[in-house]
Recover the amino acids of this structure.
């Protein structure tokens, strides 16, 4: 799959951004379930270049991009974009969405975010512009209660969708309608993986073997 562009042909495209520091099975499984339950044609992973809140143990954009490439190589419905890591300055979601809409005007774009991140979205740059400019999918893990999502200042109401996949509809203050898509709870986090590495513990079954090997070869996250 191409690293920068996907084959545009009036597709339903999921956009999944993040630091992916490193990418792990939690990211991959959530992306696969959202792809299926929201009837997407493809999911594009977008590693952040310079996130607004930079972690002290953030691997370089090059390393994080390479790890995502390795992780998704066997899945033909996944691809990865360099749009943020090739840019200058801090990476803001609202700017990335605007750029993607200009690059792919014929595609229907869906911004995918986790339920915990969605609860925090009012603190992002221009959250109203985000929810009014792109279709929104919230990947709902059991750890974030529905009450927190209902109480978001971006949400007017939640109602069941007319399918059997457990999908809910979000009525947003922008007038648009988003989707709340349940995904499997996997108690894996990038910060936990980094702590495992620093403590000399095994990474088996936390992330793809190819990513584990890359981390080992490049001696990432040891400090």
């Amino acid at each position: 799959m191409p690293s920068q562009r996907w084959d545009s042909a009036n597709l339903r495209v999921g956009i999944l951004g993040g630091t992916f520091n490193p990418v792990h099975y939690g990211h991959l499984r959530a992306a696969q379930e959202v792809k299926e339950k929201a009837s997407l044609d493809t999911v594009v992973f977008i590693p952040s270049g310079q996130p607004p809140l930079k972690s002290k143990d953030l691997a370089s954009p090059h390393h994080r991009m390479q790890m995502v490439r390795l992780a998704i190589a066997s899945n033909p419905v996944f691809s990865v974009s360099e749009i943020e890591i090739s840019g200058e300055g801090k990476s803001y979601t609202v700017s990335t969405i605007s750029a993607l809409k200009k690059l792919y005007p014929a595609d229907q774009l869906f911004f995918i975010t986790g339920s915990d991140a969605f609860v925090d979205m009012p603190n992002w740059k221009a959250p109203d512009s985000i929810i009014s400019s792109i279709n929104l999918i919230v990947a709902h893990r059991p750890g974030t209660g529905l009450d927190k999502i209902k109480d978001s200042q971006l949400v007017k109401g939640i109602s069941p969708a007319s399918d059997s996949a457990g999908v809910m509809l979000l009525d947003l203050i922008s007038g648009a309608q988003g989707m709340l898509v349940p995904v499997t709870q996997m108690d894996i986090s990038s910060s936990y993986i980094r702590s495992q590495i620093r403590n000399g513990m095994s990474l088996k079954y936390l992330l793809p073997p190819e990513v584990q090997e890359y981390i080992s070869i490049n001696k990432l996250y040891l400090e």
